[in-house]
Design goal:
- The chain is of the alpha+beta class.
- The protein has a single domain, classed as Alpha-Beta Plaits (2-Layer Sandwich).
- It is built from 3 helices and 5 strands, in the order βαββαβαβ.
- The longest helix is centred in the C-terminal third of the chain and has 14 residues.
- It starts with a strand and ends with a strand.
Length: 83
């Protein structure tokens, strides 16, 4: 498995309650933020392939009622860390 790093761009900023739920749901492997007015989640997930990590993250976020607008990849995250 490898650790993949990417951002989920959200439709709205997260609330304090949603951030607590995100921390639990992602087991601490996500950081909510607002960058240049854009609400996002920095995600760091282990998966066999990036596609699986992205799909998992989007499903987890949506299961909490968050609107995921798009995914942005960090060029450094594409090479991923060996686990």
């Amino acid at each position: 498995m490898k650790t993949y790093h990417f951002q989920l761009i959200l439709g709205t900023p997260t609330t304090d309650e949603e951030e607590e739920q995100l921390f639990e749901c992602f087991e601490g492997r996500v950081s909510p933020a607002v960058a240049n007015g854009v609400p996002l989640l920095y995600v760091h997930l282990d998966a066999p392939f990036m596609e699986h990590a992205i799909r998992d993250a989007v499903q987890r976020a949506r299961s909490l009622g968050l609107s995921v607008e798009r995914v942005e990849l960090d060029p450094d995250g594409i090479s991923a860390d060996a686990a």
